[in-house]
Amino acid sequence: MLGVVESSVMEYLSRKIKKFREKYSRIKFHIHSATGEELRKKIDADKLDLAVLIEPVEVAKYKSVPLDIKERWGVVVREDSVEQERLAFSKKEAD
Prior knowledge:
Helices cover 29% and strands 9% of the residues. With 95 residues, the chain is an alpha/beta fold.
């Protein structure tokens, strides 16, 4: 079973799985979507074969391979919110 956080990694993974299955058509994937914390717990409990997580993540006790994927995030506010007039927020403001 493969654990994945909801992110742009899903599109990346879909392409990789499709290419893999062209060569190995009899192999099936079971994908479980969850938070990074839930996925780490499942890896520790041997309920997942591997997990794809978003950094930062504590990887010292795991074998890991970084993926070259960029995440793009946005801010959503209600239409009547004061913040809707602003064009940008700094990282410091978001924390």
